[in-house]
Amino acid sequence: MADPTLSGLEPAVVFDGGDLDCGSGLALLIREHMLEVPPGAVLEVRSREITVCDDLPPWCRLSGHDYLGELPGGNTTRFFVRRGDGVQDEQALAADKAKANDYTWRLRARAAGPMRSTVYCRNFQWTVGQAASFEERDAHPSAVEYLLGTLAASLTTGFATECARDGLEVDDIEISAKGTLHSVMAHLGLDAGDPSLESATLRCFASSFDDEAAVRAAWDRALARSPIVATLRKAASIEIKLVIM
After folding, report:
1. Structural domain of 202
2. pLDDT at 4 over 80
3. What pLDDT is recorded for position 8?
4. Rounded (5°) CA angle 98-102-103
5. Are residues 133 and 213 located together in one domain of the fold?
6. What's the CATH number where 20 sits?
7. Which pLDDT score is estimated for 110?
8. How many structural domains compose the chain?
9. Does 2 score more than 70 pLDDT?
């Protein structure tokens, strides 16, 4: 239940964390914005991510700040944090950034039968078919399809997050993707060519009545911040276009 006394607070700093949770960057942003807050003053964090309700209070206790509570705020929840006295946020932020930069993702894959492997990652598992398939139907997606799907999904998710952070109403974000290999024959072992991804073409379609320049700015940030886009652009010709309807 929301504390009515919170509505009278005057935060020193307000920022919108969008759809980020504490494990995907929100905690770093809180640290960074807390540097602008004098000790004893209040930071207001706005978020659309439901897990923040559970994760923010213990994070505040561990960080030396006081969690004051939350209020509903339209399509966001407003969280209030009082900066603790003597908390060295500069050092804590530097340590958190170093830890994030050193993070290593881990998973394992195991052959599960003909043309099939299972990937295990954290609390997830999924089935991958052969590396590349040219059939109309298969029991499982191929590895190349997972690659293109990961590229597209990194942008749909990233774009939606950037739009939410800017308060932009963008609906029906959808990306169509297609890709080609340099040499299918090399992949099949019938030629000595290059089996790598040659090109990928993506078209993102989104519906919005908001300012087009602001929507495109959010899209550009999503492109610039995608590790998948940045990686594949070093290896293949990647053409990506946004269409606003």
Report:
1. 150-244
2. no
3. 83
4. 120
5. no
6. 3.30.110.40
7. 96
8. 3
9. no
Question: What is the C-alpha separation between 226 and 222, in angstroms, rounded?
Answer: 6
- Whether 2 is covered by a domain: the verdict is no
Model confidence at 241, pLDDT cuts 50, 70, 90, reads very high
pLDDT (tens digit, 9 = 90+) per residue, 115-174? 999 999 999 999 999 999 988 899 999 999 999 999 999 999 999 989 988 888 998 999
User: Does 186 lie in the same domain as 159?
Assistant: yes
135 and 220 inside one domain: no
Instruction: Examine the domain organization and report whether 26 and 51 are in the same domain.
Output: yes
**pLDDT band for position 20 (cuts 50, 70, 90):** confident
SS3 of the chain: the string is: CCCHHHHHCCCCEEEECCCCCHHHCHHHHHHHHHCCCCCCCEEEEEECCCCHHHHHHHHHHHHCCEEEEEEEECCEEEEEEECCCCCCHHHHHHHHHHHHHCCCCCCEEEEEECCEEEEEECCEEEEECCCCCCCCCCCCCCHHHHHHHHHHHHHHHHHHHHHHHCCCCEEEEEEEEEEEECCHHHHCCCCCCCCCEEEEEEEEEEEECCCHHHHHHHHHHHHHHCHHHHHHHCCCEEEEEEEEC
